[in-house]
Write a structure and sequence with these properties.
Layout: E1 8-14, E2 20-29, E3 51-56, E4 61-73, E5 82-86, E6 90-91, E7 100-105, E8 116-129, E9 131-137
Antiparallel strand pairs: 1-9, 2-8, 3-7, 3-9, 4-5, 4-6, 4-8
Amino acid sequence: MILDERTEFVDGVAIPGSAGTAAFGDVVDLRSLGGSGLGGLRDIGNGREIFWYVAVGDAAAGGTSVNVQLVSSDSDTLSAPTIHAQTGVIPLAQLTAGKLAHMQSVPVEGPAYKRYLGLQAVVVGTFTDGDLTSGLTLDPHGWRAYPEGAN
């Protein structure tokens, strides 16, 4: 599977530590896909199926659960986001090193995508450790998560 730095939201970024909902990571500006990237953009793959993945790097500790959501917004800070997909609640016991926590096709049905695409996390508890990697890919086959190596 080929990964593109421009379609990667987070790469080994810590799970937000405090309980609540927070945007985290980078955003993808969808403007280049549909003129303004606003108002009615639904097929961000331009006819190709795109997959969204979430993987665990270092095992999580301290928190209870996290639900990662793929959202879009008119603002690059992801304020007033529209939720397009989500992992569902992932309990602490499943946030183990090297685990592929979620992989799904990016929806083309449902609400239209706004200009900026990114992630927000709904955190329960207080995480003291653990990180995630998430992005978009055209080919999920053969994808495998590995724990981060000690350098």
